Amino acid sequence: MATILYVIAKNGFRDPEYFVPKNVLKTAGHTVMTASNGEKGELAHGADGGVAEIDIAIRDAHAGDYDAVVFAGGPGALENLDNEASYRLAQETVYKEKVLGAICIAPVVLARAGVLEGKKAVVWSSADDTTGIDAITEEGAEYIDEPVVKDGAVITARNPRAAQEFGEALSAYFM
């Protein structure tokens, strides 16, 4: 079974984008560790009121210690995760040929890290707001309008409604 590092914003992660895939992964027998921009032992707070204990600070995490690294979205994702520590972790994950996942707005973080260039991916958008699509395509990703998109070891998902399917796609990678 796989060990997965799930990266969430200390404040404002989207609850179903973390809790639903985490449950799918744990039910399948995988180990899920939680990383955040907070400190080990602190609590991260979801936008919908959920709480998660932080197992490791992003700055201390190394992709080589995990089989996959997954980024959750939510209103706090770009504010808390769009930074050099997250970019380094995403780049290291690709370099080590590990599975890299992101849901909702979090594929923007991967795109800004330079790891979606030439990859098919999906990101959150709406009829009124296509900034996520613009952000990933400007960094060389090919936007695919599907709930979950797999391109090699990179798995992206559109929004919380795709959380179950996202978790299943991540889990299936290790079966």
Write the layout of secondary structure elements.
Elements: E1 3-8, E2 11-13, H1 15-27, E3 31-36, E4 43-46, E5 51-53, E6 56-57, E7 68-71, H2 77-81, H3 84-95, E8 99-103, H4 107-112, E9 120-121, H5 131-138, E10 142-143, E11 148-151, E12 154-157, H6 163-173
Parallel strand pairs: 1-3, 1-7, 2-4, 3-6, 7-8, 8-12, 9-10
Antiparallel strand pairs: 4-5, 11-12
Low-pLDDT segments: none
CATH architecture: 3-Layer(aba) Sandwich
| Structural class by SSE content | alpha/beta
Q: How many strands in all?
A: 12
The tally of structural domains comes to 1
CATH class division: Alpha Beta
Order of helices and strands: EEHEEEEEHHEHEHEEEH
CATH superfamily: Class I glutamine amidotransferase (GATase) domain
**Discrete helix count:** 6
Distance between the termini: 8 Å
| Biggest sheet: strand arrangement | 6-3-1-7-8-12-11
| Overall residue-averaged pLDDT value | 97
The largest sheet, given as strand count, sense and whether it forms a barrel, is: 7 strands, mixed
